[in-house]
Structure formats: structure tokens, C-alpha cells
Amino acid sequence: MPAADPDSVDFSVAERHKHRQSRLLALAGRQDDAVSLRQLTLLGFTRAEVRARVRRGDWTPVHRGVYLVGRGTLSPRGHLHAALLAAPGGAFLSHRSAAAAYGLRQINRFEIHITVPAARSRQRNGNLIRHRATNLHRDDVRTYNRLRVSSIPQMLIELTSTETERELDRLVTEAARRDLLHVDKLTQALRRNSRRPGLVKLRGVLGDYVWKPRDKSTLERDFAAFIVADPLIPEPVRNEYIGPYEIDVHWPEHRLAVELDGRLYHQAVKDRERDNAKDIYLQKRGIRSVRIRDYRFEHDRAGIRGDLLDFLRSAADAA
What we know:
Blueprint: H1 6-30, E1 34-36, H2 37-43, H3 47-56, E2 59-63, E3 66-69, H4 76-86, E4 92-93, H5 95-101, E5 112-117, E6 123-125, E7 128-133, E8 141-144, E9 147-150, H6 152-159, H7 165-177, H8 183-192, H9 199-206, H10 216-228, E10 237-242, E11 245-251, E12 256-261, H11 269-284, E13 288-293, H12 294-299, H13 301-318
Parallel strand pairs: 5-7, 12-13
Antiparallel strand pairs: 1-3, 2-3, 4-5, 6-7, 8-9, 10-11, 11-12
Helix pairs in contact: 5-6, 6-8, 7-9
């Protein structure tokens, strides 16, 4: 058998090293520069090579068996990745660290909370705080921006015993603004954890987010009875079409339209966009559009009455 060409062997080895390095950089990029020893082994690095790179300062140990690839410091999100890589299989970011992973608060790299299914007890190891969890539901954990993390409902339930009502309210509001809070999932999570301490506080903060919306026809009937019972509010036209849009309640002479909405405001982005288009269409034609949601109708009828009378009077004065 002819001897192998030394030049071709060197070229092959160099190509393998280049390919391995390319895969490493791609992996580190996905994990904000944090990689585990297990991942390095799968890429073909030996333990001796890992130790050599650490000695040279090319890689920096973050946790046992977890490294920062490159010279520098680990980013805040890199610390979240490193925490998951250092934890047992099935672990996920939870509590305040879950809120940080969603961008709802700042990342505290000195105190990272992770939950391990069926772990023995809550314990701290360096900057990692481990919590135990049993009987997790499949909806309690999700992947968000490549991080395994508590779902939004699960995160709120985890925090309800430690956070103030003000902080819980801020988290709920911010999650709703980003369309991360979904009523069905939230309601189901509260039901599954009905015996968990502190839920009374969380339910109070959630307020109208877990309010069960009225059926649209029921809301229309109730609003019609509300109008008829008030002698100062004139009889409107109902379910009238203006251009392509059906208007729930309309006072043509006062150029005032009321839209009745039984949906929670954060529940459907497409619905909100359609509502905005209708409002703009009416405004271009000089018609004031007022939206009344069922939660306000239930809790603030006096305020609704006052607003309607003000709008009707101002239109009459202008005429």
C-alpha cells in the first residue's frame, strides 16, 4: 500500500480543526458565548484541549463544566445560558430570572433562579438558586429566545409569595403590553395551582385579566336596557352600517358611535388592528368613536353615563 502524502494529511487535519472551530463559534453564538464541557466533547474537543485553552485564557470557567468561549466577560443573557448548562437535565429558568428572560426586568447575574423537576430541596450554589418542582404541567415550561423558562402564568405563580402587589401588577401590565399574557393559559394555571399560598394576592392583581368576557349579544342587550332607562340619553340607531363597517350604537345627529367590546384588550392583535381601522374610518367622516368594554360596563356605569352625556351635549352645542 502506498504511503499517505504528508501534505494531504496535514491539510485534512487542518480542515477538521477549522470545521470544528466553525461549529463551536456557531454554538457559542446561539448561547451568548456559553458552552458546556459535554457540548465541547460532542464537537470533538478532548479534556486536555479544554484545559489547555483555559490555561491560555482563551476560555474562562463560569460554572463547573461550563465555559465562556473567547476572551472577555459573559453577557447578562450569557449568564442565563450558563446557568441552564450547569443545571441537571430538565431544569428551566424560573422566578425572577424567568421574568428577566422575558425582558420584564433586569437580569441579575449574581442571583439566577432555576427550577429542577423533582429536586430534593431549594439550595444555592454560587449565584445559582435551585428550586424543586413536582407535578409540572406541559404548559408550565416553554422555550423563549432559546432559553428554557417558566411560562408567564407559571412565573407569576412562582413570584406571588415573594413579590409585592406593585411588582406583580407591573409584571402583569408589561406582559400584557407585549402580548405575552393569554387568558386561557392563565386561567388554567390558576386552576391547577388553586391551593398554592399567595394566589389571593395574585388574583387581586390580575383583576380584569381573568375577567370572563360577556357574550357580545348579552352585552348589547344590557347596554340597550341601560340606555332606555336613562331619560337624558336619546334613542340611538343600532347595528347600522357606515361604509363597510357595522356600528353597534350610533347617534347620527350627534355624530357619535359606540362600539361594545366583550374581548379582553390583549387577547387578539388582529382584532385590535381591525378596531383601529374602523375608528380611523369613522374619524375621517367626522364621527366620534367611543369603545366600551364589558369590564368597565360592569364596574363603571356612572362614568359611562357621564361620558356619553358630555359627548352628546358637545355635539349638540357644536350644531
